Amino acid sequence: MALSTATRQQTITQLKQIPMDLLIIGGGITGAGVAIQAAASGIKTGLIEMQDFAEGTSSRSTKLVHGGIRYLKTFDVGVVSDTVKERAVVQGIAPHIPRPFPMLMPIYAEPEATYDMFSVKIAMDLYDQLAGVDGTQYANYTIDKKEVLQREPGLKSTNLLGGGVYLDFVNNDARLVIENIKEAAELGALVASRVAAVGVLHDDTGRAIGIKAKDTLSGEVFEIHAKVVINTTGPWVDKLRAVDDKLDHQPMLRPTKGVHLVIDAAKLSVPQPTYFDSGVHDGRMIFVVPREGKTYFGTTDTDFTGDYAHPTVTQADTDYLLAAINNRYPKANITLADIEASWVGLRPLIAANGSSDYNGGGANAGKVSDASFDHLIQTVNDYEDQQATRAEVEQAISKLKTAHAEDTLKPSQVSRGSSLETEADGMVTLSGGKITDYRKMAAGALALIRQILAEQFDQNVKDIDSKKLQVSGGHFDPTNVEDTLKFYTRIAQDAGIPEADAADLANRFGSNTGRVVTYAGAGVVPGLSLKETISLRYSVNEEMTLTPVDYLLRRTNAVLFHAESLAQLKQPVIDEMAQLLDWDADTKAAMTTQLDQTIAESQLTALKGTVTA
């Protein structure tokens, strides 16, 4: 089923008239993951999102499907095991999106450093065992100081010991969401963006039986009824719970804000994603990632209590990241003026957890005592020699003691996790987690939903193997990605698209490339390339793209990674969307203003204006 303005209106009509088995509130990665699995299971599924799909947290990540090697600094082997296994699953169900790209971790001899050269090798070996990449082309290795500086001559050499290289994956977070959404719709789910949940409906016994919804485009308020309602609203979980008068409203989440900054690769070029301690001994680590001729770096990790729908980058955020990047790359001299784009997002951390995965769990969770460390290493070595069992390794991990007062580490101090709860009125709340874990989180939720439907409604739902449930655009062999994408590139080339543009389309749309190419028959939009023309038309007609910001920020990465082309793209995109969506002059002007404001925020125009020459 294509997703467009027309189908959106049809969907809203159906949601008003047809009771759902399951109603999902929230169209980020978590809700999208639940929707595709529920629809594939034969559950009558509805999904509403108050903004554009992925407009919140799910388009504002570090854009990696990473294995969480940082968790091994406090030996949270269970978390890493789950994460690296899920990373491989995501690559299998969305093979055109995550791509392997080995990560470089420079190691410095500094107080409170996460790793030294010995411990990083131990961590990477364990990481590879958990990921199942031992003996492959992606197996980890260490390099000495000289080779680190050969790869990245701009890195600070003072106190540099060497580095570790291990497997990680780059990701397009917003496209992962929309491809899950599209597949869910193809499987029968009724999905609509820009529909907000403004209240929770209850029957005479106080059980949640649906929600009061508002179409934010038309202003219409209506009811949607469902046997099961699930809250997958990310950082907004508590805000939805707050409009449910049957619940206590103690906060479940502690959102933190993460900021990333983008510069041109000519200012700072890195050959591969790079990951290091911030250098200011605060327990944080910084990513530096090459992408599309740019380099981006982040992230901050600060508590957030402002406008969830509109977090902004502050002077303190840029000061922190610029200090960190210029410390590690002292000759780069990156300034605020060099920032071409930025993004900021909220992480939906579980309030009960001591801290996020970016700061390693708070004051007591960084160092372990020598005795605990030595015992663990010996046990791991014995395990590798088949002289110890997995249970003995897990026991050694559980007995790790901190060097501060020898307190046993609490799991909530180590990493961020997810939470699946059935509320007092029966509404299900799925919160927390990481983008890498979305499929597994959804599978857990589906198991609970199947149980509820069976026990309370005598409705049996078929089980599915969600590890094999491929998303839209991903319907091809995940073990043969490069050759398959070359095939789709040729399809686009045969339509008259230059090779580089054709490859970009194939990488963006995967097995949907042939469908995208059908839009070439309508001619080229003045001011746009054929590639951009057909991408835009497909996106408006089949990806529920309703605004220029939807297209230029989330369906593509133009705002983030192609600032230099925005001036050329902006007006033709607005003009074509105005024609496709039948905008009047006032709507077109409002859409132009919205896009201009989004670009200005991304480019930090206001902050730059406060800097005196």
CATH class call of the largest domain: Alpha Beta
Which structural category do the helix and sheet elements fall into? alpha+beta
Number of helices: 21
How is the CATH topology of the largest domain named? D-Amino Acid Oxidase, Chain A, domain 2
Characterize the main sheet.
Answer: 8 strands, mixed
Radius of gyration: 24 Å
Tally of discrete structural domains: 3
Alpha-carbon distance between the termini?
54 Å
Number of strands: 19
CATH homology group of the largest domain: D-Amino Acid Oxidase, subunit A, domain 2
Task: Determine the fraction of residues in helical runs and give it as a percent range.
Answer: 25-40%
Shape from CA axes?
globular
Low-confidence stretches: 354-367, 401-415
What is the CATH architecture assignment of the largest domain?
2-Layer Sandwich
The residue-averaged pLDDT reads 90
Fraction of residues in β-strands? 15-25%
